[in-house]
Design a protein that fits this description.
44% of the residues lie in helices and 15% in strands. The longest helix is centred in the middle third of the chain and has 33 residues. The protein is of the alpha+beta class. A four-stranded mixed beta sheet has the order 2-1-7-8, with no helix packed on it. It has a four-stranded antiparallel beta sheet with strand order 4-3-5-6.
């Protein structure tokens, strides 16, 4: 039993036309779970930075009912209103004013609307998260916004499947048990996001049960050009030396063990540096960028970043962005 959808249906879930086209090509789907898996693959691996920005622009700012892009569908606008219902219900006039001011400040700094999965969140929670994320470097915040967009997309896919299953059940095209299964999946996805929200609010470590991409990723930007750095070789290694950890200034022969390598794409993102596993091995890692080959006349022959993954962090995702200028001694590394 499969569920087929059109491009406009997926555009309501995510305001990127490229995302919607890719999902329509993959349709029909046997289950909501299969659709969510495909959506994650398309969003993180197949669309580019312009698709992300287009999706961001389809969202109204928190507290505003009008989207920031003309291509937003009526269904998407209706869903946005419902997703913000808790925030609007808990907001006073002064709170909405403060949200508006901080949204404007955020947009001026980053160039896109503040994006957050608002379902079930109060205006105070959203404002606190906005203020918490505002100091981020643009590349870090861009990645967070993309993660939040995926959460919204998953919730909307659940709504899409739920409505389809109810219609199918009513017209006897599929057994009622199918509609019940889709509803259970929908509740599971919503519950999962609310659990993540609760744990983040309480300051707990969020654990993801199933990954859709490698646990260690990177993104390289050439600040001299103001664009992604494509074609940079990236190498990932893990410390396996006699000493528990490498020491500055000491010989490291035989200490580093190769884990994987890749080359950045046109968006400056690396491919699969490690296998997609739920838990990454704790230890000390080194990620190196062949900036010398990228720009032979540049200042850096290569750039390496050493970081540690602790036992308590083995289920987290580690994104190691690099912003650098080939012709000066300036690098910016995010966390």
């Amino acid at each position: 039993m499969e569920f087929g959808f059109e491009e406009k249906d997926f555009l309501a879930c995510c305001g990127s036309t490229k995302f919607a086209k890719e999902m329509a090509l993959n349709s029909p789907f046997a289950s909501l779970e299969e659709a969510v898996s495909a959506a994650r693959d398309v969003w993180f691996n197949k669309v580019d930075v312009h698709a992300w920005l287009q999706a961001f622009s389809a969202h109204p700012q928190i507290g505003d009912s009008s989207p920031s892009s003309h291509h937003t569908s009526p269904t998407s606008a209706q869903w946005s209103k419902g997703e913000q219902s808790t925030a609007l219900a808990t907001a006073t006039g002064s709170a909405l004013q403060e949200l508006s001011e901080w949204n404007a400040r955020y947009r001026q700094k980053f160039g896109f609307v503040f994006l957050i999965c608002a379902s079930g969140r109060s205006s105070a929670e959203i404002l606190a998260e906005l203020k918490n994320r505002y100091p981020n470097r643009p590349i870090v915040e861009f990645d967070i916004a993309a993660q939040e967009q995926m959460k919204v997309t998953e919730l909307r896919l659940a709504k899409l499947f739920s409505s389809k299953a109810k219609v199918a059940s009513t017209t006897n095209q599929y057994p009622a048990v199918v509609a019940k299964k889709v509803e259970e999946d929908r509740v599971s996805i919503i519950g999962g996001h609310l659990t993540v929200t609760s744990e983040a609010t309480a300051g707990k470590t969020t654990q993801i049960s199933t990954r859709t991409r490698p646990p260690i990723t990177t993104h390289v930007l050439d600040v001299s050009r103001g664009s992604p750095a494509a074609g940079i070789e990236v190498r990932l290694e893990m410390w396996k030396g006699a000493q528990p950890r490498p020491s500055f200034g000491e010989t490291e022969i035989g200490g580093w063990v190769f884990q994987g390598s890749s080359t950045t794409d046109n968006d400056g993102r690396s491919g699969q540096l490690t296998s997609i596993v739920d838990a990454v091995d704790p230890g000390i890692y080194r990620i190196s960028f062949n900036t010398g080959k990228y720009c032979p006349a540049g200042f850096f022959p290569y750039v390496s970043i050493v970081f540690e993954i602790r036992e308590s962090q083995k289920r987290e995702h580690f994104h190691v962005p690099l912003l650098f200028s080939p012709f000066s001694c300036t690098t910016y590394r995010g966390s």
